[in-house]
Every structure is written in structure tokens, then in C-alpha cells.
Amino acid sequence: MYDIEALYEAGSVSQAIALLQEHPGARIIAGGSDVLIRVREGRLAGCVLVSIQKLDAIRGISLDPDETIRIGALTCFSRIACNPVIQRRIPVLGEAADTVGGPQIRNIATIGGNICNGVSSADSASTLLAWDAVLEYSGPKGIRLVPIGNHFMGPGKTALNRDELLTAILIPKESYTDYYGHYIKYAMRNAMDIAVLGCSVNVRLSQDKKTFRDLRIAYGVAGPAPLRAPEAEGNARGRPVNWETAETLGKAVIKEISPRSSPRASREFRLHLAEELAKRALRQAVTKAGGTL
Ligand SMILES: Cc1cc2nc3c(=O)[nH]c(=O)nc-3n(C[C@H](O)[C@H](O)[C@H](O)COP(=O)(O)OP(=O)(O)OC[C@H]3O[C@@H](n4cnc5c(N)ncnc54)[C@H](O)[C@@H]3O)c2cc1C
Prior knowledge:
Blueprint: E1 4-9, H1 13-22, E2 27-29, H2 35-40, E3 47-51, E4 61-63, E5 69-72, H3 77-81, H4 84-89, H5 91-97, H6 103-108, H7 111-116, H8 123-130, E6 134-139, E7 142-147, E8 152-154, E9 157-158, E10 165-171, H9 173-176, E11 180-186, E12 197-205, E13 212-220, E14 227-228, H10 230-236, H11 243-253, H12 267-288
Parallel strand pairs: 1-3, 2-3
Antiparallel strand pairs: 4-5, 5-10, 6-7, 6-10, 8-9, 11-12, 12-13, 13-14
Helix pairs in contact: 5-8, 10-11, 11-12
The structure holds flavin-adenine dinucleotide (FAD).
């Protein structure tokens, strides 16, 4: 049933890297909630797996001395949702984590696996994009820091080299201070369903809450990879916090996305959702920031 040629268990990050170098076609397995399905379906038949399950050093959430939030790649979604650092500083990531699968999946599925899959529907991806997260890749030459915007290279493809693994997700203090966010996952069912479209919005308002100092908007399933809408974001900066700005944002984002038709939804429906969810997520983010829309 599970056609696996060999399974190696890494005892450290450096051993995981060495195993990836020794076995060039090998694939990392973290929680296994994606990999094992692909093995069972035959899409990864006969593969060599390198398990990183025992690497406690890359599991958990902490604050660096400069208040960068450090999320270990092996942290599972249920831990993210209830973590006090997340709840206090970037609660929207916990809310997005809570939309993944059911409780069993959230207990096993890791945030690293979610974004290393390279799938557009990954629920944590758009939220991390909207936080300007920085990814820590570890490989034979040491650590590389890669902005998450450069990580997604297309369906199933990331910027990770074959002998590298993601060890942490970093959210610098300046990326989250005074920002408030909201994530909306539109799916056919409330639980255990992949997003038809996901939309994550972060705002930073002026002190009097009347002007958008900054706005970030990111989507899942609106293109071959999770994406931001930089022109729409730029247009909204410095604009008043009112419904006209929200309407303009909704119209602008659909020029920057390219959803496809799939059995879950047509391209036209996804475009309609993208406009509507932009406005709804914006309204919620503004409310959380203490403004009114
Ligand atoms: C029933 C069910 C429901 C689901 N529902 C959702 C949902 O609602 N939303 C959603 O987004 N996803 C969902 N998923 C997909 C899946 O659970 C997530 O993508 C999960 O986060 C993957 O994490 P994992 O640790 O299980 O990854 P794995 O399956 O172990 O690995 C996934 C991929 O990432 C690579 N990888 C893993 N960790 C690393 C690392 N640290 N460095 C480099 N590469 C790495 C692996 O080689 C593999 O290619 C669901 C899956 C199932 C089975």
C-alpha cells in the first residue's frame, strides 16, 4: 500500500542535510499528511523519505531578542492556534491555522509542510505572505534567509534546493507592529475542505484611524501560487478609511490575480470572490485596528 524504498530518520538538522545529499531524489517527511497521501496514490511510489519528525530544535514558537517571531518549521497547526505569542502579536495566523482540516490534521500537519508543498490552497501561505514573513532555509552552505514572496515558484515548486530544508519562519517586528489582520477562507464546507479561495488582509491605520498608512493583501488559489496584489496595495496607501477605498481595492485586486477554473469553482466565481473577500477581510481588519468601515 505504501511503496517506500527507504525511510531515514534524521537526528539533527545537519544530519537531515547530509541524508538529502546522500540520497539525491529523497523527499523530506514532516507530519506526512501530504507526502503519505501522494505515496499511497502512487505519485511518489518507490521514494526515499528523510523524516525530520524528531528535530525538536525546529519545533515551537519563540521571540528573538529583537522581537522577531520565530516559528519552527515543524510546529503543528494546533500549537500555532493556541500559542500566546501568536495570539498576542499576530492572532490572524492562529485563526488561519484553525481553518486547516480537522483536529487530527491540525495535530500532525506542520506549517513548514504547508508552505513547502508549494500548493496555492495552503491556508497558512497567504497569511504569512501578508505578514512579509522571512523563511530560514538550512543547507550544506549554512543558512539563507528568503523573503516568502520569493519562495513560491509555481505549482508544487519552491525556491528550496534539493539539499535544503525549511527550518523556521520569521516575522520581523516591523512587519507586525501596529498591523491588524483578517483571513477569510471560502470553502464549500466549514470544516475539512480545501479553500476555493483564501484572502488575508493586514492594515496599519493612522493614529486617528482615518487613513490607511499601509495595507497588505494576499490570496490563495487566485493563481498558480499564493500571491500578493502589490499595485492594489500601493493604491490604498494614504487613502481614507472608507467604503470607497474598499470598493477601489476590490476592483484593483482582480487585475492582479489569475485564478483558473477547477471542479471546485469557475475562474469567474473566483474573481467575484476575490473582489468580495477583499472588502470583507478589509472591513474586519479595520475593525480590529480600532477603525470603522
Ligand atoms: C484530510 C486532510 C485535510 C487537509 N486540509 C487542509 C486544509 O484545510 N488546508 C490546508 O492548507 N491544507 C490541508 N491539508 C494538507 C496538509 O495537511 C497540509 O499541507 C500540511 O500542513 C502539510 O504538513 P505536513 O507536516 O503533514 O507535511 P508533509 O506531508 O510531511 O510534507 C509536505 C511537503 O513539504 C515538504 N516538507 C515538509 N516539511 C519540510 C521542511 N521543513 N523543509 C522542506 N520541505 C518540507 C515535504 O517534502 C513535502 O513535499 C489537508 C490534508 C488532509 C489529509
